[in-house]
Write a structure and sequence with these properties.
By secondary structure, the protein is mainly alpha-helical. It has helices at 2-23, 27-43, 54-65, 69-73, 78-102, 113-124, 128-131, 137-161, 172-183, 187-190, 196-220, 231-242. The longest helix is centred in the middle third of the chain and has 25 residues, at 78-102.
Length: 243
């Protein structure tokens, strides 16, 4: 009887141990589950990450950081998470520049020069990869061209405005300088010179003064005592005067 009881106890113990092993938790299983969860989060990230995926990338990073060192080493696609994070950083940097460009007014004037320069400086500070993600570069380039055209045109406007109201022969050099500066402009820049008519008027006046001075010089060149030998010079002076 005692012997039968021992057999029964042994059988009961065997079933108890088996039940414990069947229902117990293996720490290695927990590790595998945690690692697989992080791997799944990372794999769920799209091939081409956008700013819309920032929350998902942050969640994957938080889950990864919660692992212990052994578990982290088992995450086989960690480089995918790093690449996604790097792209988010680049996208945010590019967006900051795009936002600066978007803030520029539709009509650019010299009053916007500081903002345009700030946007260019921000773009220049980006890495090559970040620059490639800027979508508004054409807008910035156009704004810079407008500023450059305005500056060039304003320089010529200043030269023309500096001409006196009453033109004399002494103004010939200043008029020539203004003309040369105007001619050096592009067609777009010339269109911005609002006082071009003042320059052409000054040139017309100077041309008339030059003609008059030429006649005066011809007359002054005649000798004090006229002889028949001076007849051609006298006739030339007359013709010039009459014209």
């Amino acid at each position: 009887m005692k012997r039968m009881f021992m057999y029964f106890a042994l059988i009961l113990l065997t079933f108890t141990v088996a039940a414990c092993n069947f229902g117990g938790t293996d720490p290695d299983d927990d590790t595998d589950i945690a690692v697989q969860a992080v791997i799944t989060l990372i794999n769920a990230l799209p091939e081409t990450v956008s700013l819309n995926d920032q929350t998902a990338v942050t969640s994957a990073r938080t889950a990864y950081d919660a692992l212990n060192e052994t578990q982290k080493a088992a995450v086989t696609n960690y480089n995918r998470l790093q690449a996604a994070e790097a792209r988010i950083v680049n996208l945010l940097a590019a967006k900051a520049v795009d936002d600066l460009i978007d803030a520029l007014p539709a009509t650019i004037t010299l009053a916007n020069q500081t903002e345009v320069q700030a946007a260019r400086a921000a773009y220049t500070a980006l890495t090559t990869a970040q620059r490639a993600l800027v979508t508004k570069l054409d807008t910035l380039t156009a704004a810079e061209a407008t500023i450059a055209n305005r500056i060039a045109a304003d320089n010529v406007i200043s030269l023309i405005n500096a001409l006196p109201a009453t033109i004399t022969m002494n103004d010939a050099a200043a008029i020539a300088t203004a003309r040369a500066a105007y001619d050096a402009l592009t067609a777009a820049q010339q269109a911005l010179v609002t006082n071009y008519a003042t320059l052409t008027s000054a040139e017309t006046t100077l041309a008339g003064l030059t003609t008059v001075q030429s006649v005066i010089d011809m007359i002054n060149a005649l000798p004090a005592t006229i002889t028949l030998a001076d007849q051609p010079d006298i006739l030339a002076a007359r013709a010039a005067y009459d014209s």
